[in-house]
Amino acid sequence: MPEHRLFLLRHGEGAWNKENRFCSWVDQKLSEDGVKEAQECGRLLKEMGCQFDMVFTSILSRSVQTAWQVLEVMGLEWVPVVKSWRLNERHYGALIGLNRAEMALNHGEERVKLWRRSYDVTPPPIDESHPFFTEIYNDRRYNSCDIPKENLPRAESLKDVLDRLLPYWDNIIAPEIKRGKTVLLSAHGNSCRALLKHLEGISDSDIAGVTLPTGVPILLELDGDLRPVKPRQLLGDQAKIQAAIKKVEDQGKAKPGGK
Ligand SMILES: O=C(O)[C@@H](COP(=O)(O)O)OP(=O)(O)O
Question: What is the 108 CA–ligand 1 centroid distance (Å)?
């Protein structure tokens, strides 16, 4: 019998998801469709009778806005929302802002897939000459992280994401779940993948086959030691979910014009 229910959520569609650009640490807001996705997610969770005691988000607006929309639709605006950079999207380094389909044309689909889905390949790092460097590293939100600003990543593999996320999971989130709180984690495609890899014991190679669509809640039923007692459930219309996963995978296919 499960002792705990944990909900993971990749935020609703952001402006750059639509434009097929690596968004990562650039702070894009939800698109109109992204707001609708988050609201739809809230309606579904409400219909299913779900309740939350705590929500954890990254410090990127698209994950925070998604949490707000979900809580509002569920009538749970009072639920505490705790934010940490450790739940941020993977730092895509020099790839930030680039179009995936154009990258696939220039570097090949296999290379783009390795950058996007492999466990331990790190993209080239961002440096001062990058058009979004200043916007990211001068942003006040990174002044009060639990590590000095100069130690923040300049590019991350999925393994690096797990390494920075795990202490937060172990010391902050897991104890709340063990105390009996039902937690919603509103984060990103790759921060959720990293946590899934850890919780489900997914191998380094199999994690490449895991792709998460935007705005679809994932239910994990866990035992007392926070080990899953059954496979993850992506909640909602299964045909639509499969189509949404394919759409995310296809973002890395070579297409002139980038869309
Ligand atoms: O950084 C980004 O652009 C996407 C992930 O991109 P892929 O790994 O799917 O290429 O992250 P999210 O939309 O979840 O914040």
Answer: 19
Identified catalytic residue from 4, 11, 130, 188 = 11
Over residues 84-119, the pLDDT tens digits come to 999 999 999 999 999 999 999 999 999 999 999 999
Task: Name residues contacting ligand 1 (CB within 6 A).
Answer: 10, 14, 17, 22-24, 89, 92, 116, 188-190, 248
Question: Is residue 173 domain-resident?
Answer: yes
CATH number of domain containing 122: 3.40.50.1240
Using the structure block, give the residue that is written with the tokens 């739940």. 87
Flag whether pLDDT at 257 surpasses 80: no
Q: Determine the distance separating the centroid of ligand 1 and the alpha carbon of 179, expressed in angstroms.
A: 32
Report whether 70 contacts 38 (CB < 8 A): yes
Q: Which of 4, 69, 13 is nearest to 188 (CA)?
A: 13
| Short-list 167, 165, 200, CA closest to 89 | 165
Tens digits of per-residue pLDDT, 160-185? 999 999 999 999 999 999 999 999 99
**Interface predicted TM-score (ipTM):** 0.97
Residue 256 within a domain: no
Residue 258 has pLDDT above 90, yes or no: no
Residue 105 belongs to a domain = yes
Q: Which residues are annotated as a binding site for substrate?
A: 10-17, 62, 89-92, 116-117, 189-190
Range of the domain at 136: 4-250
SS3 217: strand
The number of domains in the chain is 1
Residue 258 domain flag: no
pLDDT for 239 equals 98
